[in-house]
Write a structure and sequence with these properties.
This protein is of the alpha+beta class. The chain is built from 31 helices and 24 strands. The strands form five sheets. Strands 1, 2, 3, 4, 5, 6, 7, 8 and 11 form a nine-stranded antiparallel β-sheet that branches. Strands 16-18-15-19-20-14-21-22-23 form a nine-stranded mixed β-sheet, sandwiched between helices. The longest helix has 36 residues, at 211-246.
């Protein structure tokens, strides 16, 4: 044998022997020092864990918090949600390089406490602030920095950890975006009551999927799938073997079948394991893009025993919407009445740590894709029915400077009376069928405003409303402020107040009074510089002359000698009366009367005289407008926050002209408040019922009120059956500036005028048309934000103010309202109005004509 070969073999044996000896020595040393080695390993692991915990705590201490506030039109698509999900995954890993994997998390916090709707916040590492400030959802979601949630202790708190349960690789159900996947959660927290300390929070913690972890998980799933395939094949093989060897049915079959008495039996091939497709086996883990680790923590609390548990059950049930091959279910066990889970030791400490720090524990997290969690990656959309919270619209309480709007049923079935703040409620439009609650709702508003010490004027062409509200206004603090102008009287002994359009006793500027009266008549009659220039000129000069007379009467201490609008007729047609009036004018004012008036054709005066004759033909209107000293002064009512009730005589052409004069005076009085500092302009409301009849001649006036009087403290509430029958200028102005918009059931054409103002909502004309009586759909503006449209039940006087009713004092209120307005018997006022021409003539006869006037009496005639 070759010596070299023998030497090599010997060396190999020696080497192998040395290795074995060394290994045996190592094993012997390890065995002898096993406890020390285990202790050292434990110390190293504990040290590593402590370092990891300290680093995680440091990273999680620096977090950024943002709140996402969607608009009412927010409706994202699948692509926008995908981009949001990828952005959240990147934001979760935006911490420093030394941040442990467990601290690379992002938290979606959905919170409700009964005072406001479900809020949606994102909490992420501080380095992700710039990334989160730019939302893929665009301008329909506002991203605002938010402080950390301030924790408030509650008496009862329950907790839950929701994890994904299902076959490995299986996913949650991909919930469609409409209806909103968050709707079950919104419904679950809709019954929360802030006064009971209710609170519900759902925290969805997301973390990027580590590649190595994902790879190991895929391998594990594939191995498990192959093992299942082998077990299935073995089970089938055992079944076949049993069938061929010992099955009684097979044996009897052979005995009964002569064909099987000879020959050999069938050859049974053992089944092969089914082929496992790795991509199908790993399921939703096949692709890494859009994959994230997820843990869901839930905490519910209340100050009332039992409510926290009820809330938790509702929140857990709301997660069933995602149940598919996998589902989100709570960890823990139930043993009789005892629940073993995050609420008890030792799991309680872990939960509180995860809750406080947003730590991600691999053993408690699952894997999910963006598509599966799409419903949780965005705030509530336009497809969600968000209940109105106390923070959005408070509940009405008397004396709280609120206006009751309607009874609203929350998610828990409890009704509350929604209200808006006085200063937020500017202009309102109500539309819908007659007798379905529009006027009643306005009366409730008016009574509430009166008890809030606010001023108002209610124009009711029917004259019934004051009798309905009287018992609720019969209080000492209100009674002195009420004024009643009821033009529906007929008996000679019935009381009526009066209004002199030309009254100068209030210290008004003469040119403003003259301009207001002329503009009111021009508006009511449709006059302008093109259609009726001569009539405008004649009326202007006549009113200016009579206003000058009234200024002198007031200056002389004889306000009862003032002329009224009915003295325009003798001024134009009676030379003797005109002569007396011209004596009271200065030279410049008389020039037109001496140079231009004599050349006017007599039939040209009829255009001016005709409407005045129509007004004077009604004894009530004659008495109301024909007395010298006014009890009606809407400007003073504004400044002193009076409660004025005006009942026009009817809705005919002449009555509409009177109403136009009244509404035009609203505009005049509101604009005259420019002489007051803004903080001294006490808010004042105008309620105009049967807006169609009021708008016939005053269309531009109502439009101008909504366009110009907000800054002067004036608000307007209009009620009409058919919005489309209003003049286009009025309709456009009301819809443009309305802070409250409501409708009852009605015709499709009328309803469409309102529903067209609610784009992007689920309320359709068909929904409104199906409303029952007293039901309304209404939208409101609260603190600059639109709320609604909401379905509400119209408030009723007795229901809202039942405790304030004083029916025994109704008569006293009626008398006080008339007395405050200076009302006198109709017969007395009628006689005074008929004699006013003589009274003015007597006053003018005693005046000394200006010394600068050299014209003769014939020229004046």
């Amino acid at each position: 044998m070759d010596p070299n070969l023998m030497t090599s073999a010997a060396n190999a044996v020696d080497t192998a022997s040395s290795i074995v000896t060394a290994l045996w020595a190592a094993v012997t040393w390890v065995s002898a020092n096993l406890w020390w080695l285990a202790l050292a390993a434990g110390v190293l692991l504990a040290g590593w864990e402590a370092v990891q915990q300290r680093l995680a705590a440091k990273a999680l201490a620096e977090r950024t918090h943002v709140e996402l506030v969607p608009t009412a039109q927010f409706s994202p698509g699948e692509e926008e949600i995908w981009r949001q999900g990828m952005q959240l995954i990147r934001a979760a890993g935006a911490g420093p390089w030394w941040t442990p994997r467990r601290a690379r998390t992002l938290r979606l916090r959905l919170r409700a406490d009964g005072s406001q709707p479900l809020t949606y916040r994102i909490e992420a590492p501080a380095g992700a602030h710039a990334l989160l400030a730019r939302s893929p959802f665009g301008p329909r979601v506002t991203v605002t920095p938010a402080p950390p949630v301030a924790e408030k202790g509650r008496a009862h708190v329950v907790r839950a950890v929701l994890t994904l349960h299902g076959k490995p690789g299986s996913g949650l159900r991909e919930v469609p975006l409409e209806p909103d996947p968050l709707q079950p959660l919104v419904d679950a927290v809709s019954g929360l009551r802030a006064e009971l300390g209710d609170l519900a929070e759902v925290c969805v913690d997301l973390s990027p999927a580590p590649r190595w972890h994902l790879a190991l998980r895929r391998q594990q799933i594939v191995r498990q799938a192959r093992a299942r395939a082998r077990r299935e094949a073995a089970r089938e093989a055992r079944a076949l073997s049993t069938q061929s060897a010992g099955s009684m049915s097979v044996a009897w079959g052979r005995l009964l079948d002569p064909a099987q008495w000879q020959g050999r039996g069938p050859v049974l091939m053992p089944p092969r394991p089914q082929h496992v497709n790795p991509e199908r086996a790993v399921g939703n883990l096949a692709e890494g893009a859009g994959l994230m680790r997820v843990q869901v923590l839930v905490r519910c609390a209340s100050d009332n025993a039992g409510r926290a548990e009820q809330l938790l059950a509702l929140v857990n049930a709301s997660m069933d919407v995602y149940a598919g091959a996998s589902r989100l279910s709570a960890q823990g066990w139930t043993v009789g009445p005892v629940r073993i889970g995050p609420d008890v030791w030792p799991w309680r400490g872990r939960f509180d740590e995860q809750w406080a720090r947003a730590l991600m524990r691999p053993s408690r997290s699952g894997w999910a894709r963006i598509e599966e969690l799409a419903g949780l990656l965005k705030p509530p959309t336009a497809a969600a029915r968000i209940p109105v919270s106390e923070a959005q619209m408070p509940t009405y309480g008397p004396g709280e400077d609120l206006l009751p709007q309607g009874w609203y049923q929350g998610g828990d079935g409890r009704e509350r009376l929604l209200a808006t703040r006085e200063d937020d409620t500017l202009f309102e439009v109500q539309s819908g069928k007659a007798g379905w609650g529009k006027t009643m709702r306005a009366q409730v508003h008016a009574v509430a405003s009166a008890h809030n010490q606010r001023g108002l004027a209610f124009v009711d062409p029917h004259g019934d409303s004051f009798a309905e509200v009287a018992c609720y206004l019969a209080h000492d603090e209100i009674m002195d402020r009420v004024r009643l102008f009821d033009l529906t009287v007929s008996g000679p002994d019935e009381l009526l107040a009066c209004w002199n359009l030309l009254d100068m006793a209030g210290g008004q500027r003469p040119y403003e009074v003259a301009a207001a009266v002329v503009d009111a008549f021009a508006t009511a009659l449709g006059w302008d510089d093109i259609a009726a220039p001569r009539a405008l000129t004649i009326l202007t000069k006549a009113v200016e002359a009579l206003v000058a007379v009234n200024s002198q009467a007031v200056a002389s201490g004889k306000p009862e000698s003032q002329a009224t609008i009915f003295q325009v007729r003798p001024l134009l047609t009676a030379p003797s009366f005109r002569h007396l009036v011209l004596k009271a004018l200065d030279h410049e004012t008389r020039r037109w009367w001496t140079t231009s008036f004599p050349d006017l054709p007599k039939d040209g005066l009829l255009t001016v005289l005709n409407p005045l004759e129509r007004l004077g033909a009604n004894p009530v209107t004659r008495a109301f407008l024909g007395c010298p000293v006014s009890g009606y002064d809407i400007r003073r009512a504004m400044d002193e926050s009076r409660v004025v009730w005006i009942c026009p005589p009817g809705t005919g052409p002449t009555d509409r002209m009177l109403v136009t004069l009244i509404v035009r005076d609203f505009l005049r009085a509101g604009l005259s408040r420019r002489d007051l500092p803004e903080h001294k302009r006490a808010p004042f409301r105008f309620y105009l019922d049967e807006l169609i009849s009021l708008d016939a001649g005053a269309s531009t006036v109502i439009a101008e009120i909504t366009e110009q009087l907000r800054k002067f403290g004036c608000r307007l509430h209009g009620m009409t059956q058919l919005l489309h029958r209003l003049a286009p200028a009025t309709r456009a102005a009301l819809l443009q500036n309305s802070s409250c918009l409501s409708t009852t059931a009605g015709s499709a054409e009328a309803i469409a005028q309102i529903t067209s103002q609610w784009p992007g909502t689920a309320v359709t004309a068909e929904d409104v048309a199906a409303l029952d009586r007293w039901q309304h759909y209404a939208s409101f503006t609260v603190a600059g934000t639109r709320v609604g449209p909401l379905r509400v039940r119209g408030p009723e006087l007795k229901e809202v103010f039942g405790t304030l009713a004083c029916p025994a004092r109704t008569g006293a209120l009626q008398q006080a309202a008339l007395r405050n307005a200076g009302a006198r018997p109709l017969s007395e006022l009628a006689a005074l109005a008929l004699a006013q021409e003589e009274t003015v003539s007597s006053f003018l006869t005693g005046l000394t004509p200006p010394t600068t006037d050299t014209r003769t009496e014939e020229q004046f005639a």
